Amino acid sequence: MSRVVAIGTVAELAGYGLAGVEVIAATETEAVRRAWSELGDDVGLVLLTAEARRQLPDPLVRPGVLWAVLPA
Q1: How confident is the model at residue 72 (pLDDT cuts 50, 70, 90)?
Q2: Where are the alpha helices (DSSP H) in the chain?
Q3: Residues 69, 28 contacting (CB under 8 angstroms)
Q4: Domain locations in the chain as residue ranges
Q5: In this predicted model, what pLDDT tens digit does every residue of 7-55 receive, in sequence order?
Q6: Are 21 and 68 spatial neighbours (Cβ–Cβ below 8 Å)?
Q7: What is the dotted CATH code of the domain comprising 3-69?
């Protein structure tokens, strides 16, 4: 079974943890990029805050991983 991970600020992602999503708190560019690059092979979906998405390069490609930007 694949995991769902959310990357961004704790304030925006707090409720997702209650639904079983692994929340990775990252606000600085380096932390967001590290979180993205260190995702395990078992991650199937990544939820990103709008700010976290802006801090990642274009195009955002990771084979086998779907990603979505959460509405503000």
Answers
A1: confident
A2: 10-18, 29-37, 50-54
A3: no
A4: 3-69
A5: 999 999 999 999 999 999 999 999 999 999 999 999 999 999 999 999 9
A6: no
A7: 3.40.50.10580
